[in-house]
């Protein structure tokens, strides 16, 4: 069964956030400092809040960074055993602390506590109607008095009539409540939340100090949170896939009965009933994707939240009717219905002079009407009518009273120490050591209370951002308690049963902090990895850009120079030069011919055919003169010489060796004068070619200088590009 967020859910969470914020403001404002430094304590308290919050977050981040949770999972069984031992030790410590208070702070019975004891004693002896006529009238006006008195009566029957036995029973109820708080928090937030709630509830000062009072709060709180735990079990374990539909229906009936029994101890259990109904009515359970006839009718029944709510409500009303009938038989009087029973509490709650608390005037008015009419119902109705008059007479004053009552109810958690100080002083049992101890515990209790309120406030903020949580039912309990006490009688101790709500919500909030820390660390690691990958990609892109730009510059340079580097071509093997045999030695001079063959083999033309080779043959006749180069007489054909000159000019202009076959045949012998003219013409043409080559070399040097400047400019552009990319990443983050 999954709870979905809706507008009412968000409204309740937001309203609780406002309420918690007001508690924090009121709590800090009420802190008392000394006369010399009246505000120092408030500042220290706020600093303590900040350090506590920062410490929890730091520890959570540290735990997430070193992976404590993942490491502990390897020792799950070991830590499960350690958890059992820790829970057992904390429960023993809680028991010992409460027994210590009972022994060290002995308390005589006063006020309502004496009433409970006297009625329980009469119930045990069976003389309530004979000797307790006044108590019967009192029960008739406030039927819940009989609930706790009946529990004491059972204890007295089993163990004997004694104040100590009643206090010991409260110790057991209190320790049992501590265990229930642990189970609820663990169910909602896991092991960490459960152990945190267990420790806080076991050592909560006000709950320990109040234990020497024979009060109904301990038994009421135990049954209250037993109902909460059962409710969580039903909504979290009995969904559409359950195979125990009948058991689920029976447990819903049991929950309604238990809430009715709890309401017989204190009527505030009605708030839990309303919270459960509000939780269940809007939700539905998704059934398995199988034919509907294959699903048990009881499972289909539990799939509808409103049917669950109706079942719980029917069980509650049935058991409540039985309990009311039993009370009427016990006191032999009719008791008022729910709509009639809150008249006196409403009258007291709207009394501005007493700040909504008990006062003598309203109590006298109640008993006067009881004596006048002889009916508890009529007395309650008279109080209700007068309360309506107060409500309509001064609406502005009522609103002011409501805000003040909220501060009185939630502003502090000092009732444990205050009631001990008051009663011990009245009984002349307040020693200086006891006074110092109680005042110290009072200060510690206030700090613990405000810290719990702080983390509850933070948890509620988390709930607004996260998916719907079963904590919602506890939020409704807090809101219901706050709302009802704005109107009816209110005392500081009346928030006793809501303190576990604060503890559970705050403990689950600590679990949320650790979850957020893990998420933050993972996100940080992922972001860092993404940055590193992005930087690697950018560096690769920049490097590729450099390579491509360098290639582009080289190509641009080659295209601009239009020159052919013969020396590099020969060095790289692209051009092969062979020398005629006539230059190799004197023994070879007698040969008529020598062949010079040059071939250019470009890298991209490796697969060229043999026809692409350029053989160049040159033959000459040499005379055995001492200076071969001066006396050599070679005869060329005019046509071949012109082709050679044109080829050299093309090489100089384009920087490429033309792929064509050029063969220079030996020139025919001619007369001496014709040979001289041809040689002079060839020399002049070669000189012109050399002049062109020199000019091209000069142009090449100029282009080299331009290339160097261009390269420097490109380096600067690249640096600017890198800086711009970094700035862009910075703005994106």
Automatic annotation (TrEMBL):
Q: Which UniProt keywords apply?
A: Cell membrane, Glycosyltransferase, Membrane, Transferase, Transmembrane, Transmembrane helix
Membrane-spanning segments? 7-25, 45-64, 84-102, 150-181, 193-212, 218-236, 248-281, 447-464, 470-488, 495-514
Q: What is its main location?
A: membrane
Q: Where in the cell is it found?
A: Cell membrane
This chain belongs to the protein called Glycosyltransferase RgtA/B/C/D-like domain-containing protein
Question: Any idea where the Glycosyltransferase RgtA/B/C/D-like domain is?
Answer: 147-281
Enumerate the Pfam families for this protein: PMT_2
Q: Looking at the record, which segments are called Disordered?
A: 657-682
Q: Which InterPro entries match?
A: LipidA_mod_glycosyltrf_83, RgtA/B/C-like
